[in-house]
Design goal:
about 450 residues; mainly beta; five-stranded antiparallel β-sheet
Length: about 450
């Protein structure tokens, strides 16, 4: 049973506040923010308690999504509700941000009124709620298919001549009473990579967590068929020799997915509802089908003037036609580092010494595959010794790899039945993110 639901900005501003039962303290919002900001570290506990009130929260879109409840409530139910609430609001508002929440506060209050009654959860289904919601969403950024200023993420292999901007799916879903909207469906194959590479360059650990997300903007679609790689195996199942093998250790499916064609033809069948849903999740550990995307060759020494020299060569082992974007290299350095001079191999890079976090951050906006970049950092460290030089590393990388999957998973085809009366746009996106990419030096 839920007592209150409220949404706070990262600065503690009250964006949404709904009290369902009138039994919780009126200062619950202030108490929660004080408890969160008083904690050390970046990951506060999901469940916190103050006197007889329990706070359960999640972070999405840079906002705090909080529910309060009494002691007899299940925290796992509240966490699941908050996650579904964020997905619901994202479907109806188009995106999750402080701006979109402020612009659509009336719509969000109406969603809360329909989803929760006197603290009891009724439904979080977009298909059910669209019959009751009357408030129209206000888009924080108007969508245009011809706005190609942010091109590069969407694009199916069968439609190479058509490319949608990366913000194409970040818009409100169409309600049942709206007519004339674009009939589109987006399929995202998103993977998160965790890698540990030893100081000798040997791959010590690698994990890939992936999912297939579908976001539907069609008023009616009886069935969708998603074809995966024919040579897709789960666990220790035998390969059938149909082509390049894709093997995963674990795989789970949404309850709406029908698997009668999966064993023989690797086809997922489902009736997509308007909005976003995750139809498949999978995991691969240790046995990567290809080499890690980045290799680092560091040289760390002390010069005659007592400065710390760090010469780094970073190689991108992606295919030549691919590229990594938003690459950030974080190098921990000894505490007390005062200043830094730098020499970078190209002008589209930048680096900064951050004394508070005791690290040098090397930023690369775009890193083409098959190329190598280098950087030389000279740091003034008072009292530099052999012991303090051991404080350098390990190096952490964060990046995004568009049009690339580390596992090799591909969408073979995407078919809708029955055939839609009007033109139906189908888009596929492949993207791999770094979850934790660590290189020891």
């Amino acid at each position: 049973m839920i007592s209150q639901v409220f949404i706070l900005s990262s600065k503690g501003d009250h964006l949404i506040y709904k009290d369902f039962r009138g039994e919780a303290r009126s200062d619950a919002v202030s108490v929660f923010y004080e408890k969160v900001t008083a904690l050390t570290g970046d990951q506060p506990p999901v469940v916190m308690t103050h006197q007889d009130l329990h706070f359960v929260h999640v972070r999405q879109g840079g906002l705090y999504w909080v529910a309060t409840a009494a002691a007899d409530s299940s925290p796992f139910t509240l966490i699941e509700f908050l996650n579904r609430l964020t997905a619901l609001i994202k479907d109806y508002c188009g995106s999750l941000s402080e701006k979109s929440v402020r612009m659509n506060f009336a719509l969000i209050y109406e969603l809360l009124d329909e989803a929760v009654d006197y603290g009891y959860i009724q439904t979080t289904s977009s298909d059910v709620l669209k019959n009751f919601i009357q408030t129209e969403a206000v888009s924080s950024r108007p969508f245009s298919l011809f706005d190609l200023s942010n091109v590069g993420l969407f694009g199916a292999e069968t439609q190479q001549s058509k490319v949608a901007p990366s913000s194409a799916a970040a818009r409100p879903i169409l309600s049942g009473r709206e007519q004339g909207g674009k009939s589109e469906i987006f399929v995202d194959v998103i993977e998160r990579m965790s890698v540990v590479i030893g100081s000798n360059g040997v791959l010590m650990k690698a994990d890939i967590e992936g999912e297939i997300r579908v976001k539907c903007y069609m008023s009616s679609c009886s069935e969708m068929r998603i074809g995966l790689n024919e040579e897709f195996s789960i666990g220790k199942s035998q390969l059938r020799g149909y082509g390049a093998a894709v093997r995963v250790d674990e795989c789970s499916f949404h309850q709406a997915v029908r698997l009668d064609e999966f064993d023989n033809h690797r086809i997922l069948r489902l009736c997509p509802s308007q909005g976003e849903q995750t139809v498949m999740q999978y995991q691969l550990s240790d046995d990567l089908p290809s080499a890690p995307p980045f290799r680092l060759f560091p040289t760390i020494e002390r010069d005659f003037g007592g400065r710390l020299l760090m010469y780094l060569k970073l190689r991108c082992d992606l295919p030549p036609k691919s590229a990594a974007i938003n690459v950030s290299v974080t190098i921990p350095v000894p505490k007390g580092s005062l200043s830094m001079s730098q020499e970078l191999s190209s002008p589209d890079q930048s680096a900064e010494l951050k004394p508070q976090s005791k690290a040098v951050v090397w930023q690369i906006a775009r890193f083409p595959g098959g190329t190598q970049l280098s950087a030389l950092f000279k740091l003034e460290v008072p009292g530099l010794s052999s012991a303090s030089m051991l404080e350098v590393g390990p190096v952490g990388l964060s990046f995004e790899l568009p049009k690339f999957t580390a596992s090799g998973l591909q969408i073979r085809f995407l078919r809708l039945s029955p055939v839609q009366p009007g033109p139906a746009q189908r888009w596929v996106r492949y993207v791999t993110h770094s979850d934790s990419y660590c290189i020891r030096v």
